[in-house]
Amino acid sequence: MGYAASEQATAGAVSALAIKILVAGGFGVGKTTMVGTISEIRPLHTEELLSERGVGVDDVSGVESKITTTVALDFGRITIREGLWLYLFGTPGQDRFWFMWDELSVGALGAVVLADTRRLQECFPAVDYFEQRGIPFVVAVNCFDGARRHEPDKVRRALGLGGATPIVLCDVRERESVKDVLTTLVTYAVKGVPTE
Amino acid sequence: MTAADPGPLIRLFGLTGGRARPVGETFDLVAIVTTVSTYVQPVEHLPEHLTVLSLCRSPTPVADVAAHLRLPLNITRVILGDLRREGLVTIDRPRPAAQTIDERIYREVLHGLRSL
Ligand SMILES: Nc1nc2c(ncn2[C@@H]2O[C@H](COP(=O)(O)OP(=O)(O)OP(=O)(O)O)[C@@H](O)[C@H]2O)c(=O)[nH]1
Ligand SMILES: [Mg+2]
Question: Which end of chain B is more exposed for a tag (fewer CB within 10 A), N or C?
Fold first, then answer.
């Protein structure tokens, strides 16, 4: 039994694949909701040294230098089959956690940038970030109740996006809607990467 | 000073020797960790190490190992780096995601997502 299990593990190592997708966007735009709608959220956090990363942001005056802060991440897993998963990571919304983005974005297949039409400008930093690093992204406009339904073209112009970047209107509370966003992203990332 | 219980922090310190970064080649959050099949269970290992070795008989991404251990990600990575140095686990090399997804996997993912 033990032997068979080990053999399986060795074989699996060749083919196991975890695909990473980031969910970014401004404060309170619906990142956590989106991850929770489509996957089981699992607790994940990290400890970072404030002295290393966040100097001048958190008030650490009068306290010894080696203080850690806990950064909680939205983390969801979608199992496609044994050995093939999609992992969703919500990037922390607060500015002082920007350093986490570099860590999160390494090797990512792509990103969903969530936008709220009432404050579109809040997703500029995320759009810039992914554009600069050549990480494929889709803009998902979370249509909060009562929010004006922007035409995708207006959003495209407001964000200064190139023609290839998909823009999807969505409701992050609806599973079908989130599935739509993710399939659009996966297809864009795999098939639609504009030629350099 | 705060009145926070120092217990957990001391425990974390013991697991990593206070190190903030893992030894060796860096690895991604979703790099696959696999227990080396021939390992002989070393009795002197910390419970957390044994948990990893048992969990990763089935190839498991780093972030899942952290969630399973209920330990911070950075602490988990230090532990994984140590186990790798001892030759007890392998951690796959980072690969650009788009290159690892061939047509078959792409279809599987789309189909999997749609049937959720
Ligand atoms: N009416 C409505 N409420 C929504 C929608 N999406 C999210 N919300 C609510 O908006 C609030 C913020 O959503 P979250 O998912 O926590 O947003 P977040 O981006 O994770 O927020 P931070 O992590 O704080 O940046 C929650 O109370 C949600 O229930 C939506 O489409 N419609
Ligand atoms: Mg959130």
Answer: N
